[in-house]
Predict the 3D structure of the following.
Amino acid sequence: MLTFVKPTSAYQEKALEYIQEFYQYHSNINGVGGLNRYLEDYDGWLTKLERDRNQPVTEERVPGETYFLVREEDDRIVGMINIRLALNEKLKEYGGHIGYSIRPTERGKGYNKVNLYLGLKVCQQHGIEEVFMDCDKDNPASARTMLALGGKLIREYYSKRDDGIVQDYVIDVNQSLEKYAAIYEPMVTYPPTTDQKEVR
Ligand SMILES: CC(C)(COP(=O)(O)OP(=O)(O)OC[C@H]1O[C@@H](n2cnc3c(N)ncnc32)[C@H](O)[C@@H]1OP(=O)(O)O)[C@@H](O)C(=O)NCCC(=O)NCCS
């Protein structure tokens, strides 16, 4: 079972170890909300995430949320996701709503499809109906994650910035969540609501 966990100080060690694994395996880092720039200042990163959440939309920045994808069985961070709750012109052009990653030692197990499914749930809660995402054409694991959740390829272009072909996808959030719930709901759990916590 997999679940989204909001980063807290309790996960400091596990979060830093998550990033270290990417360096160890020389892997691209994506969807970590800038954690790789705060390795010496985890508390500062938590403060940054709080700022990100309340960030008004500007030409430079948009509000966003970052989650750990945690495997309940051993409380291991297996993935991360960064969800932009609005798009400015820059993100419409490049980057889109969602960045994500799965740690190198946990790839190829279908975890990123669950990551995106839960990410789309967050988008739905924020009233986002269409999610725009992009990936390099030579990143089939990312492209196939989007396709598996009903993503449609809308554009392919050469990017000077990446020196390669970039693909843009769109996902109809409500349609996707309805269509794929039967597959992914049995694999996920949700944190208790505040009310439930009070009852306990
Ligand atoms: C992209 C990434 C998140 C995929 O994570 P993952 O957990 O391995 O993905 P999943 O196991 O959920 O697989 C998703 C789909 O990709 C396919 N896939 C997985 N690894 C693959 C590979 N190496 N080559 C081709 N397809 C692959 C899976 O078969 C699945 O497709 P299917 O449902 O059609 O069978 C991971 O490779 C990663 O963190 N990469 C570095 C960061 C990154 O590139 N982020 C995306 C930026 S756009």
Summary: Helices lie at 12-24, 42-53, 89-93, 111-125, 140-148, 173-184, 194-199. Residues 27-28, 30, 100-102, 107-113, 135, 139-142, 144-145, 148 surround coenzyme A (CB under 6 Å). The domain at 2-128+184-190 is CATH 3.40.630.30 (Aminopeptidase). Residues 128 and 173 are 7 Å apart (CA to CA).
